[in-house]
Design goal:
Strand order of the largest sheet of chain A: 7-11-6-1-4-5-12
Shape of chain A: elongated
Structural class of chain A: alpha/beta
Number of domains of chain B: 1
CATH class of chain B: Alpha Beta
CATH architecture of chain B: 3-Layer(aba) Sandwich
Radius of gyration of chain B: 22 Å
Oligomer: heterodimer
Number of strands of chain A: 18
Mean pLDDT of chain A: 95
Structural class of chain B: alpha/beta
CATH topology of chain B: Rossmann fold
CATH superfamily of chain B: HUPs
CATH superfamily of the largest domain in chain A: HUPs
Largest interface: A-B, 97 and 78 residues
CATH class of the largest domain in chain A: Alpha Beta
Chain lengths: 325, 260
């Protein structure tokens, strides 16, 4: 039976949500008998992460090696390529996270394999298998197939749902990678946390974003209050980041982050194409702008034409009431 | 210090993109630009050259018009430019393109390779890392700071919730992220120099490559078809005073869309 190898990652003491999404998809494929699935984790594996992962896979391979002490693209790619070869994986699946997108292209070269990056739709029932990914900032979708296997696919977070956990926990298998230290020339000197606990935009289910319409950095307070009420992550447009009201890390758009939330609220945002490129696959979009001709309304499901300085607090208050906060 | 910068000419982000009649090609309005992330790469290369003395070589793979981004590179201050121009190079996936680029880079000694973290037309973000792997080099992806000393470099990368500092020996490859620097605007003297510059071109044969190893033939990934995203239905404007509109919006989001 063909094998799918799912590369899984952790964030602190939990697996990344996208990893559970991929494992859920893999479990469906295993249940249908189309593929067998293994999950693979590289480097230090916290107990809490291990236990959760074992709820979503029958086999969790823990690849270990001194070079995997810290993330390096070289170390991770050698480790994953080595295991993928050994286990005879046909498809390697990973989340299109910063890390996944950084090192999996190297794995592709090591395995002389094709890679489809940042895929949003998978067609497992087709022969050959096809994968769909957005291009040109989401304006065109490309359906891709591979000329040979193994092949690598990175999947955009929020493309699959997280399914039910297994009735019976999976088994853990330790796999020492045996990498020669000279093969990894990158050394991590320092890791600093600057914004502890801030949720990642790319994996966020709910996003509230603000643009120049907010008029001043301090007014982002209105966005933050609304976000906090519904447990959303705050995003920003390029002009707001360039004006230094918000960090680069908050930027959504062509030179910022691509997001795919269940719900996106954009307030004081005109809808310039470079921003739209970053949020076009959001499921439900609500735009708030006092200009009825603002382009963002063409990309929204719902719109409120009004003064955000009145609308945002009104939304926050109504949400607090309905959510019992 | 020999610095190589990989640059790509892409359609202008505002250019209209349509799907060709055959479904497997794109019809794109002929307005072009340099990939925004590549500008950071060229700028960083020029700053390193200013501090360490050396040579900056910009390389692009594309059809004849792509020469414009090379001229921009020279106008900014690059010393040499190289266009990889061959029908056989076109329509490659990241793998085939990276393979060709790595062959061209390897023709001359280099210490540093810089490129953008991704091209905003294909949005793949693969080529830089693949070039590094083909050449057996370490790479640091998405750098926001780079300090080069003798034979080594220290780079900073913005990661979720913080910053990571990484050291690599040279030669190495770095992909540029927004925030690395502010790209300079070419001076008129640079623009004039660029207009007169002789830009070398290489074909597949010059690189010792068979057409099957490059472009569409050499790609590991094939385009089955292009399609347009599902058109969103027209926006539903929620009317009323802010209070009323807010109440209705929340009702829709919670009771109809069931978002939260």
């Amino acid at each position: 039976m063909d094998k799918i190898l799912v590369f899984v990652e952790a964030k602190g003491n939990e697996p990344r949500k996208v990893s559970l999404e991929l494992l859920s998809e893999g479990l469906k494929l295993a249940a249908s008998g189309q593929f067998s699935m293994e999950a693979v984790f590289l480097g230090k594996l916290p107990a809490a992460v291990r236990e959760t992962l074992l709820n979503y896979t029958e086999k969790l391979i823990h690849v270990t090696d001194p070079v995997l002490e810290n993330y390096t693209a070289e170390g991770y790619s050698l480790a994953l390529a080595g295991y993928a070869r050994k286990t005879g994986a046909k498809i390697i699946l990973g989340g299109a996270t910063q890390r996944g997108r950084d090192f999996l292209p190297r794995v592709a070269v090591l395995l002389q394999a094709g890679i489809a990056s940042d895929v949003t739709i998978t067609n497992w029932e087709k022969d050959p298998l096809t994968f769909i990914r957005p291009m040109y900032g989401g304006r065109v979708l490309a359906e891709l197939s591979f000329s040979a296997y193994p092949a690598i696919v990175t999947v955009r977070p929020n493309s699959f749902g997280v399914g039910a956990s297994l009735a019976q926990k999976g088994e853990l298998v330790e796999f020492p990678a045996g990498i020669s230290p000279e093969q990894v020339k990158t050394a991590v000197i320092k890791t600093e946390a600057t914004t502890l606990g801030k949720a990642d935009l790319t994996e966020a289910d709910l996003i509230v974003a603000g643009g120049r319409g907010l008029k001043a950095a301090a007014n982002f307070r209105l966005i933050e209050e609304l976000a906090q009420t519904i447990g959303a992550t705050v995003g920003a447009t390029r002009s707001v980041v360039d004006a230094k009201w918000r960090d680069q890390a908050d930027q959504i758009g062509k030179s910022g982050k691509t997001v795919s939330p269940k719900f996106y609220l954009g307030a004081g945002i005109s809808g310039a194409i470079h921003h739209i490129m970053g949020m076009d696959t959001s499921k439900v979009v609500l735009a708030v702008n006092n200009d009825p001709n603002a382009i963002i309304f063409s990309y929204a499901n719902y719109g409120i034409v009004g003064d955000l300085f009145e609308v945002l607090p009104a939304l926050t208050e109504e949400l607090r009431k309905r959510l019992g906060k | 210090m020999n610095i190589v910068v990989l640059v790509k000419q892409i359609p202008d982000p505002e250019a209209l993109v349509a799907i060709g009649g055959d479904g497997v090609s794109l019809a794109i309005e002929p307005k072009f630009a340099m990939n925004v992330f590549d500008e950071f790469a060229i700028e960083e290369a020029l700053r390193i050259k200013a501090r360490h003395t050396g040579k900056v070589r910009v390389i692009a793979l594309g059809s004849g018009k792509a020469i414009e981004v090379l001229r921009t590179g020279i106008a900014m201050g690059a010393d040499e430019a190289l266009l990889l121009e061959d029908e056989a190079f076109l329509d490659g996936d990241g793998y085939a393109t990276a393979f060709v680029l790595s062959r061209a880079i390897a023709q001359e000694p280099f210490d540093i390779i810089l490129c953008g973290r991704q091209a905003i037309d294909d949005d793949r973000g693969e080529v830089g890392q693949m070039v590094a792997q083909f050449l057996g080099l370490p790479h640091v992806g998405g750098i926001v700071k780079l300090d080069v000393t003798d034979g080594r470099a220290v780079a900073e990368v913005a990661v979720e919730g913080g910053q990571e500092t990484v050291e690599v020996p040279l030669p190495a490859l770095f992909t540029a992220q927004k925030g690395l620097n502010e790209p300079r605007v070419p001076l008129i003297t640079g623009v004039m120099k660029a207009m007169k510059a002789q830009i070398a071109r290489l074909t597949a044969a010059d690189l010792g490559l068979a057409p099957a190893q490059a472009g569409r033939s050499g790609a590991k990934v094939k385009v089955v078809q292009y399609s347009l995203p599902k058109k969103k239905p027209a926006v539903q404007i929620i009317s009323g005073e802010p209070r009323e509109a807010a109440m209705e919006a929340v009702r829709i989001l919670m009771d109809v869309e069931k978002v939260f």
